[in-house]
Structures are given as structure tokens and as C-alpha cells.
Amino acid sequence: MTTVKSICIYCGSRTGNDPRFSAMAEALGRLLATNGINLVYGGGSVGLMGMLARSVMAHGGTVTGIIPAHLDHVEITQTGLTRLHVVSSMHERKRMMFDEADAFVSLPGSIGTLDETIEVITWKQLGLHDKPILLVNADGYWEPFEALIRHVIAAGFTSEETARLYTLVDGLDDILPALEKAHPPARPDREDLI
User: Fold this and answer.
1) pLDDT tens per residue across span 125-171
2) Distance between terminal CA atoms of the chain?
């Protein structure tokens, strides 16, 4: 069983059109807080990410926010975080989010969420880490992504193993059980290669 004390959540800096996504972010915040799991996220106060962070804090949990200085006027840094790191670049932000997390969970989001999700999957494919990666497929949100991965496999550009680098879960109730089933890292993180 994998021991997860800190989860990096990738999600939208907007709330999207479906109010169920906002409800999901708030419920996930409560789930993390009540299970003593630290949230690592992008540090903003807007969209799903802001709702998630405020929910964790409202339920007595801890939050680590990591935001590049140039995004403060866009994502508006969330106040009251347990820890806040203001960094100089997106690369530094993503690396620090990676270092702070025992696992990764992707909620609905835009291109930034896709970028972060694909990058952490790629790092796992390259053997740079073996941390669990979950995509919460609420209302089928990640099905087009899954179809794209299947298309890339069918076209011969990657192996079937790529589809096993991450796990699609149906909803929030599946996150902790999926993490409990995850195998402990098979090898230490090769931080010198990232």
C-alpha cells in the first residue's frame, strides 16, 4: 500500500460550465482535510483550484500553494495558505509541485491542466518517478484524453504500457481506494534526471 501524505491536484483556473465540477472541488477539499492529506496545488484563488484550496482550509486541512510571480495578477494568489512558495517560472512551479507530492490527481481543467497531467505521465514513462497518477473522470471528462492515448497507441507511436501509467477513476470516492491499491515506488525518484 502506498502511503500518501501529500497530493498534487491539477485543475482549472476557471470553474467550467457545469456546477457539478465546483461541487466536486469542494468535496475533494473536504476529503483531503478529513484524511489528513496535504494539498499541493498552483496557489491561485480563482476557478476550481481556489475552491479546492479554500475547502481544504475550511475543513482544517493543510495547503501548499506554488505560484509563479507573473501569474499573481491572473490567478490571484490565495491568502491564508499553510505554505506559499512564489517562484520565478512555470518550470520551477511544476518541479516544486512534483517534489512536494506523493501522488497526482487531475480534475477537469484547461490546457494548463492537460500540460501538467501529460508532463507527470511522461516523467513516469521515462522512469523518473513511480508515483500514482489518477484522472477523475467525472461525467466522462477525461474520455477524450483516454481516446487520444488509445489513438497514439494504435498508430504505433507508443506502447500499451502508456495507458497503464495513470488510472482513470469515476469519482471522488474512488481516489483513496485507488491510492491504497497503488504499488509503492519500485525505484527511488531519479531527481537528477528531471
Assistant:
1) 999 999 999 999 999 999 999 999 999 999 999 999 999 999 999 99
2) 25
pLDDT (tens digit per residue) in 63-87: 999 999 998 878 789 999 999 999 9
Question: Which residue in the block uniquely carries the three cell numbers 506502447?
Answer: 159
Question: Which residues are CB-contacts of 128 (< 8 A; sequence separation ≥ 6)?
Answer: 189, 190, 191, 193, 194
* Claim: this prediction has a pTM higher than 0.90: yes
What integer best gives the mean pLDDT of the chain?
92
Mean of pLDDT values over 90-99: 97
Which amino acid is it at 130? D
Among residues 1, 5, 97, which one has the least CA distance to residue 44? 97
- Which residues, in sequence order, are CB contacts of 122 under 8 Å at separation 6+? none
How far apart, in whole angstroms, are the C-alpha atoms of residue 5 and residue 38? 6
Task: Give CA 27 to chain center in angstroms.
Answer: 15
pLDDT at 194 over 70: no
Phi, psi of 190 (to 5 degrees): -100, 70
Tell me which DSSP letter residue 155 carries. Answer: T
- Report the alpha-carbon distance of residue 13 to residue 192 in Å, rounded: 31
User: Could you give all domains of the chain from N- to C-terminal order, each with its CATH number?
Assistant: 6-179 (3.40.50.450)
| Angstrom distance (rounded) from CA 148 to CA 4 | 29
Q: What is the DSSP string of 166-187?
A: SEEESSGGGHHHHHHHSPPPSS
Say if residues 37 and 61 touch (Cβ distance below 8 Å). Answer: yes
